[in-house]
């Protein structure tokens, strides 16, 4: 591939991403408006702006200045509180409708529930079961909706999402027939949104596809399996991509910025803004907006009580624990899902980023900033999956374990708690404060659309166009294809500094190239260029493809402001292998210090905070696993 061809391909990829609808003037300028039809001059201008190879998200300082620069006479249209999937989705939806938008997040984008998900983008197969047996058309509509949104998520972020076959084991012939019919109905309902057809495999075929699946156990014999397809994602990187896309489109997004109080008008009747503390500097400022959208996840009740201390709680928090195991527990391209174990729970094992993620639990929990898994929950998962495997399941194999808080929503206007649901709730119980909570990752886009619609109604806002996020690929997604990694392997080197300070050239091997392609999409070339030109081509941890260059890139282009931001959300090392993340910390901090001009005191503080964070991931302290890859 010639250099000219390569540049043309890169330009096409970046430009097509613009075509999907996110834009990038410097943020102090107003957003560029996109016509709803998708072919007008405004959208063409938007495509041209972001197609510029020099386009980059505005700096954090510019974003903060945009929020500080508002006033009661010159407010934002929408200020979003919360930088998770829903909040970032709301910001993206609103700014691409031509509204002036700001977003603040107390910690980091995806620092809460959105980074601690099951990693599945599912179409609601369990809703279908309820719809059939309860003859419930409402549940059937949920399935249609989830399937449509599943398709949208995968289409809009193809580098971060993919179809995953999931195997359901059957231990009697009734289960074979039951699951086969049910999943064929799932295929039928999916229609044009179908990922792949489900099918039955014999016991022999099943163990060929999933070698660790047990054929015998507890007096049962495997009769076969039914395999169906759902989606899988890199949740935190998808969330960060949404926030960065909103920034490129003209939104003022600011992480590590905490709302400490809400501002009311002179009559004390309507919310008109928020008092915000920049947690990196400790300085506070006011930001004004016509409407506040509360997308704070499990903490949305705390925000609502800033407006009305007597507000009735909406959140019923539920804990979901997951563990990560070595890759040999599951094959690379096949997951295992047991819809109902003998004690009635759901158990799964899924390949994810070269390891195996298993779960999950569903139990009541208090709301905390850093939820931790309990040992009995970890043991429950290990015991549950051991019933279906022919390998010894060991606690010492647990590379990482984490807990996430699901914000199950209850409509505060309901008269009883029977309204608790995994569907989402949009509610305005204080003029100027719209709350969106509940729901699931799969439907974040439509949840955001509903929230923006409510905000427009509340603030009598005048968007220039309707919602366009159903045809909007996030940054790095447009023009990407699974073979994009070959550009990196053929065109880039990994230049590394030896312990003696000498530059040592190295190949951009397939593992590293595939990782960069999957994590950054068409922007992976920017990361590869840093690895080559700035001698940051070393791996950060043995056995994992993460490169030093990623730390520098994320600090410059993805608002990576702390060591935890990188090891947990920009890379996923903390979630994949807690001990490996700990070993990588000194080098991560060294690179971030160079990028952000940290002094020795700040570096020491970052190391301490990161170690405390990793202690909440209950890996086995003596877990020893080296697969020999990526040396």
UniProtKB/TrEMBL annotation:
Keywords per UniProt: FAD, Flavoprotein, Mitochondrion, Oxidoreductase, Transit peptide
GO molecular function: glycerol-3-phosphate dehydrogenase (quinone) activity
Annotated PANTHER family: GLYCEROL-3-PHOSPHATE DEHYDROGENASE, GLYCEROL-3-PHOSPHATE DEHYDROGENASE, MITOCHONDRIAL
Species annotation: Crotalaria pallida
Names of required cofactors: FAD
Domain FAD dependent oxidoreductase: 77-445
Protein localization: Mitochondrion
Domain of life from the UniProt record: Eukaryota
Family per record: Belongs to the FAD-dependent glycerol-3-phosphate dehydrogenase family.
Pfam families xref list: DAO, DAO_C
Protein name: Glycerol-3-phosphate dehydrogenase
Keyword field contains Membrane: no
One of the GO biological process terms: glycerol-3-phosphate metabolic process
Record domain Alpha-glycerophosphate oxidase C-terminal: where: 467-602
EC number(s) on file: 1.1.5.3
Substrates-to-products reaction catalysed: a quinone + sn-glycerol 3-phosphate = dihydroxyacetone phosphate + a quinol
Class in the EC hierarchy, top level: oxidoreductase
Keyword Transport: no
Gene Ontology terms: cellular component: mitochondrion
InterPro entries from the UniProt entry: DAO_C (IPR031656), DAO_C_sf (IPR038299), FAD-dep_OxRdtase (IPR006076), FAD/NAD-bd_sf (IPR036188), G3P_DH_FAD-dep (IPR000447)
Pathway: Polyol metabolism; glycerol degradation via glycerol kinase pathway; glycerone phosphate from sn-glycerol 3-phosphate (anaerobic route): step 1/1
């Amino acid at each position: 591939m010639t250099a000219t061809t390569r540049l043309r391909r890169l330009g096409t990829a970046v430009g097509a991403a613009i075509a999907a609808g996110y834009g990038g003037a410097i943020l102090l300028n107003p957003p560029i408006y996109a016509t709803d039809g998708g072919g007008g001059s405004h959208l063409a201008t938007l495509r041209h702006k972001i197609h510029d190879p020099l386009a980059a998200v505005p700096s954090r300082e510019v974003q903060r200045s945009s929020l500080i620069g508002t006033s009661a006479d010159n407010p934002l249209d929408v200020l979003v509180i919360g930088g998770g999937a829903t909040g970032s989705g709301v910001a993206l939806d609103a700014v691409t409708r031509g509204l002036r938008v700001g977003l603040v997040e107390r910690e980091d984008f995806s620092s809460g529930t959105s980074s601690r998900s099951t990693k599945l983008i599912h179409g609601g197969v369990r809703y279908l079961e309820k719809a059939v047996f309860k003859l419930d058309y409402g549940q059937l509509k949920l399935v249609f909706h989830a399937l449509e949104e599943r398709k949208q998520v995968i289409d809009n972020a193809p580098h971060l999402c993919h179809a995953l076959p999931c195997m359901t084991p059957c231990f009697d012939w009734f289960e074979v027939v039951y699951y086969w019919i049910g999943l064929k109905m799932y295929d039928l309902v999916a229609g044009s949104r179908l990922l792949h057809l489900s099918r039955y495999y014999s016991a022999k075929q099943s163990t060929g596809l999933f070698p660790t699946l047990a054929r015998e156990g507890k007096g049962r014999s495997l009769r076969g399996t039914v395999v169906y397809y759902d989606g899988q994602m890199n949740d935190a990187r998808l969330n960060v991509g949404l926030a960065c896309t909103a920034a490129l489109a003209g939104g003022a997004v600011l992480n590590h910025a905490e709302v400490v109080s809400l501002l009311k008008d002179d009559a004390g009747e309507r919310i008109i803004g928020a008092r915000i503390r920049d947690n990196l500097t400790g300085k506070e400022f006011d930001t004004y907006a016509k409407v506040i959208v509360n997308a704070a996840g499990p903490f949305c009740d705390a925000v609502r009580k800033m407006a009305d201390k007597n507000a009735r709680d909406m959140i019923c928090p539920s804990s979901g624990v997951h563990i990560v195991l070595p890759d040999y527990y599951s094959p690379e391209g096949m997951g295992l899902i047991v819809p109902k174990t003998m004690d009635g729970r759901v158990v799964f094992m899924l390949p994810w980023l070269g390891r195996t993620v298993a779960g999950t639990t569903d139990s009541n929990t208090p709301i905390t900033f850093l939820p931790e898994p309990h040992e009995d929950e970890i043991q429950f998962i290990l015991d549950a999956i051991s019933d279906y495997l022919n390998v010894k399941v060991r606690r010492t194999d647990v590379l990482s374990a984490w807990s996430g808080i699901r914000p199950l929503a209850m409509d505060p206007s309901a008269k009883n708690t029977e309204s608790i649901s995994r569907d989402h709730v949009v509610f305005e119980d204080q003029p100027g404060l719209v709350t969106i909570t509940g729901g699931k990752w799969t439907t974040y886009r439509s949840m955001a659309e509903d929230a923006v619609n409510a905000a427009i109604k509340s603030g009598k806002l005048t968007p220039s166009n309707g919602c366009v996020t159903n045809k909007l690929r996030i940054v790095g997604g447009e023009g990407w294809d699974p073979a994009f990694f070959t550009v990196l392997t053929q065109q880039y080197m990994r230049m590394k500094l030896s312990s003696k300070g000498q530059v040592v050239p190295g190949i951009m091997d397939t593992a590293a190239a595939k990782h960069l392609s999957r994590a950054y999409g068409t922007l992976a070339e920017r990361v590869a260029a840093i690895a080559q030109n700035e001698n940051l081509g070393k791996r950060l941890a043995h056995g994992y493809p993460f490169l030093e260059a990623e730390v520098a890139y994320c600090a410059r282009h993805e608002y990576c402001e702390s060591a935890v931001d990188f090891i947990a959300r920009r890379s996923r090392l903390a979630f994949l292998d807690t001990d490996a993340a700990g070993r990588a910390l000194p080098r991560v901090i060294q690179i971030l210090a160079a990028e952000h001009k940290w002094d020795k005191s700040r570096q020491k503080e970052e190391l301490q905070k990161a170690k405390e964070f990793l202690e909440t991931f209950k890996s086995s302290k003596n877990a020893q696993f080296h697969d020999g890859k990526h040396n």
